[in-house]
Amino acid sequence: MSFAKQLLDTNPGVVNVDTTAWAAAADALNDCAQACTADTDADLGEPNVADMVKCIRLCLDCTDVCVATVAVVSRPAEFDAKVTSPLLQACVAICKSCGDECEGHAPMHEHCRLCAQACRRCEQACRDLLDTMN
Questions:
Q1: Class for domain 16-133, per CATH?
Q2: What number of CA atoms fall less than 13 Å from residue 9's CA on the CB side?
Q3: Helix axes 110-133, 53-73, angle to 10 degrees
Q4: pLDDT tens across 61-88, in order?
Q5: How far apart (Å, rounded) are the C-alpha atoms in residues 46 and 53?
Q6: What is the pTM of this model?
C-alpha cells in the first residue's frame, strides 16, 4: 500500500472520493514531478542542450503543474470538484505534451524515455481520478 493511500485512509475528515484512485493519482503526480525534475537536470547536461530547450521547458511546466495538483489532491476531505477537476485536467494536458516531447528524445536519451513513462502514468492516473469524480 502506498504512503498516500495510508494517509488518505487515516484522514479523520469526510473523504467522499475513491481513495484508491486518489492515492494512485497522488503517487503518479509525485513520481512525475520528480522524473521531470531529474530529466531537466539530465537534459541540461547533454552536449546538444540547444536541441533540448522545448523538452526542458515542458518538463519545468509539468513539474510545476504536478506539484500544485498533488498539494490539492493531498487534501481530499470535503474537496471541491470545481477546483480539483481543472487541476487534474491541466495535468492530463501537460503530461501528454511533456510525454510526447520526451518520447521524441527517448531513442537517444534514456532519461527522456523514463520521464515519458512517468508522464504517461500520471496522465492516466489523473484521467482515472477524473472518471471517478464524474
A1: mainly alpha
A2: 9
A3: 40
A4: 999 999 999 999 888 777 788 999 999 9
A5: 11
A6: 0.92
